Amino acid sequence: MTVMDTFDLTGKVALVTGGSRGIGRAIAQALGEAGAAVAVTARTEDAAEQAAVELRGAGIRSFGIALEVSDAADVERAVIAVSEQFGEIDVLVNNAGISIGGAALEVDDQVWRDVMATNLDGVWFCSRAVARRMSTRGGGTIVNIGSMSAEIVNQPRWQISYLTSKAAVHQLTKGLAAEWAPLGIRVNAIAPGYIHTDMSPVYEPQYKPWCVDPAPMKRAGEPHELGPAVVFLASAASSFMTGSIVTIDGGFTLH
Ligand SMILES: NC(=O)c1ccc[n+]([C@@H]2O[C@H](COP(=O)([O-])OP(=O)(O)OC[C@H]3O[C@@H](n4cnc5c(N)ncnc54)[C@H](O)[C@@H]3O)[C@@H](O)[C@H]2O)c1
Q1: In a 3-state reduction of DSSP, which class is residue 32?
Q2: CB-CB contact of 64 with 49 (8 Å)
Q3: Mean pLDDT of 53-75
Q4: Is the distance from the beta carbon of residue 69 to the nearest atom of ligand 1 less than 6 Å?
Q5: Domain for residue 255, yes or no?
Q6: What would the pLDDT profile of 213-242 be if each residue is shown by its tens digit?
Q7: Quick check: is 252 in a domain?
Q8: What is the atom index within ligand 1 of the atom nearest the CA of 96?
Q9: Is residue 251 part of a domain?
Q10: Which ranges of 19-141 would DSSP assign to H, the alpha helix?
Q11: Whose CA is nearest to atom 33 of ligand 1?
Q12: So what's the pLDDT on residue 172?
C-alpha cells in the first residue's frame, strides 16, 4: 500500500450533516472524490436531494435525506434510514451548525438554546446514534467541524452562544475519542478560521478589517480548502490520530 492509498475511501459510506451547501457541500464532494459513497442531510428534503443530485452528476454515489440534528428522535430515524437504504456508515462528519449574533446582555434565551441545540446537542446525538452501529462493526471515523471560535472571540459581531458551543464541541471530540478508542472509533475535529460562506460574509466592508486584514494570509478560506483535511481525518491516512483538533485558519490564531 502506498501513502496515497491510505487516503482512499473506496467502499466506505460517509454521512455529512448539513451537506447541502457551504462547507458541508464541499466536504461531501471531497469525500466522494476520495471514493466514498456520500449521504448528505439538510433541514429540508428538497435541499438534501438537490445536493445528492449534484453529487451523482459528478459520478459520486449519493443519498439525500432531511434531518433536524437537534431532535434526537429525528437523528435516530435518519441514521437508520441511511444505514439500511444506502449503507452502514463508516465516516460521520458533524458539520451542521448555526451562528446567531447579538450582544450578550440582549440576546434572547431562545437564541442561546437554538445554537446549543444545533451546534452541540446535534453533534452529540449524531455521534451517539452512528457510534452505536459503528461499535458493532469494528469501528469508524468521526470528524467534527469545530471552529477557531472555540479559542478566540470573534469581533465585531458578538456571538457568545456560538463561541461556547464550539468550545464544547472541541471538548466533546476529546472525550468521545478517549472513550471510544477501544471500540475502534476515532474522533477528531477541524477548527476552521474564517471561511467564505453564507454564514460568514467576511469580505463585506464591516467585517473585512476584523476578519481578513489581521490574518497573516490576508484572505478568508474557501470551503474546498477544508475537504482534504477531512478526507485525511476520515481515512486510514490518520490511523494514529484521535482526539485531535486540526486548525485550518490561514494563520489567523497565530497572534
Ligand atoms: N463559515 C465559517 O467561517 C466557519 C468557520 C468555522 C466553522 N464553521 C462551521 O462549519 C459548519 C458549516 O458552516 P457553513 O459556513 O457552511 O454554514 P452554512 O449556513 O452555509 O451551512 C450550514 C448547514 O447546516 C445545516 N443546518 C443548520 N442547522 C441545522 C439543523 N438544526 N439541523 C440540520 N441541519 C442544519 C444547514 O441546512 C446547512 O446545510 C458549521 O458547523 C459552522 O459552525 C464555519
Answers
A1: helix
A2: yes
A3: 98
A4: yes
A5: no
A6: 999 999 999 999 999 999 999 999 999 999
A7: no
A8: 24
A9: no
A10: 22-33, 45-57, 72-85, 109-116, 122-135
A11: 68
A12: 99
